[in-house]
Each structure stands twice: as C-alpha cells, then as structure tokens.
Amino acid sequence: MEKKFKEARENVLSTDRDVREATADHQYEFPYSREDEAQVTRRQFCNFLTLTSTALFVSASGFAAKSAYDSTKARAFDSMRVEGSEGMQPGSALNFHYPGENDTAILIRDNDGNYHAFGQKCTHLACPVYYAKEHDRLECPCHEGAFDAKTGAVLYGPPPRPLDEIEIEVSSDGQVTALGRKGGGYAG
Ligand code: FES
Asked: Residues 154-166: pLDDT tens digits?
C-alpha cells in the first residue's frame, strides 16, 4: 500500500519535472514560480475580499444614513380633520388613518389633557400598538415593546426606532387636524 503511494507520488513529481523541463525555454514569459503564483493568487483573493467588503460596508452605511435622515424629516400632506377628536377625554385614544387609507394612526389625549398622534404600526414588525392609559404609554402586544405616549420614543422591547410622528394642530374647541407625518412606516 505504502509502496503504491510512493510510486504514485513519484509519478506526479516526475510529470511535473517533465513539464517544467519541456517548457524551460518559455518560462521567462511567465516569470512566476509555482510558489509565487500561489502567493499572487492569495494576494489577489485577499484584495478582492477587502474591496468587496469595503464596498458593501460603504453602501450599507449609505442606506442606513439615508433612512435615518429620512425618518427625521416631517413630510407635509394635505391637512385632515380627525373625526371624533373634539370629544376626547384625558386618558383616551382614537384610531384614524393618515395620510392615506392604509396608513393607520393613533391619536392620544394623555392623562394631562395634551394631544399626541403617531403611526400605529410598531417599528419592530408592524403590529398595531394600543394606548395603555394606566401607564400612559403605547404598548405592542406582539413582542412586548412599548413607546412613550408623549414622544413616541422606544421605552423598552425590540422596536429599533420611535413611532412615526404625526404633526397635529388643536383648535380651542379640541378639534384636531393632522398636518404631516414624520418617519418611514407609511405608504403616503
Ligand atoms: S411587533 Fe411590536 S414589539 Fe414586535
């Protein structure tokens, strides 16, 4: 068995020697030795990996920066009266849609009597949040996330960013009008 292996190995090596001898006159056209060639290939491969990962990192950072920037901009839409808002009592909430029919939103009149409005889709996996009056916060039933009812900021749980914020105007008789929406969780 060992003898056979030695023979096979010698066969391969002698074939390699034969090839190198037969091509000796032309080797100056290919100045790399086999070892160097392997080095070059490894170096090229490493360069390729470095370039590819740098390009991926730069483009991913660009997307993240753009989406963070977009989420801080308020986008104006046609103003819309929120039906039913004029009768809201402190510690209550009202669902509505803004700016489009598919854009669910929630209007809150907090325990202090102030109004706040947010997109109703949780920023984790888009479950609808609800107003928990006893804690004065918005809670998500899916994975126990929670948001501040006054600012929409994440209080705890897996949501990665605040709720979409809806700009509102409140008249002296308590009529709420939606003016714009900030964030990214809406169809527009
Ligand atoms: S969908 Fe709201 S916490 Fe997961």
From this structure: 999 999 999 999 9
